[in-house]
Amino acid sequence: MDTFDRILQVEELTKTYGRGDNKTEALKGITFDVLEGEFLGIMGASGSGKTTLLNCIATMLRPTSGKIILKGQDISGFKGSKLADYRGKEIGYLFQEFELLDNLTARENITLPLSLHGITAREAEKDIQELAAMLDITGVLDKFPGQMSGGQKQRVAAARALISSPDIVLADEPTGALDSKNSKILMDKLSAINKIQNKTIMMVTHDANAASYCSRIMFIQDGCIFHELRRNIKKESTADFYDRIVAVMAQLGGGSANVL
Length: 260
Known about the structure:
Layout: E1 6-17, E2 24-35, E3 39-44, H1 50-57, E4 65-70, E5 73-74, H2 80-90, E6 91-94, H3 106-115, H4 125-135, H5 150-162, E7 168-172, H6 180-196, E8 200-204, H7 208-211, E9 216-221, E10 224-230, H8 238-251
Helix pairs in contact: 3-5, 4-5, 5-6
């Protein structure tokens, strides 16, 4: 793996909660790289540390020790305006429950990250229209969240995560609040964006169907990397990759129902 291909490096990352008898080690020295343009899925049992890992990379949590290096910069030392720029420009975050503001239209929700950096919706209109077309939400740009379906809300949230052209998109259970039809629509769109724009995506999921769209799956167990699967993009279908994912999930303990 060539250094210049790496967009993200996580080195010996630990996260500990509490002290003494109440001490919990959520992450136990995890080390891995993410390549530019990769679609990485993170799976594991409830409490395995996967969301803690994502939130450390998003700087929502501060790790106890270790390094997180994005494009050669150690983000653990970021403060003030540098930290704000990292959160607003270099990463995009897609939440499970959409997290849209009810009193703003879809267009206003999408451009919210830009407005925090002094960029107006008018200046970003071309990018808005391009993203809306890719995500099939052009028809709801002037609607409020209460006027949208769950699938439309999540695709608007995806546009918001992408509007600032971040280096990497972090997605936490993006299909968790969607039915199977809308989950497939969202994953088809994210997969297309990953391929067409070479956008790096790192997704926590419990859904083997969603995970089958990824190019690599990293399974976490008890704060450590348990196993990895890589999909042969040229030869392996999503259905075949799905079968391999389910087989590993069963080894994690009790099958897919327990992999949250």
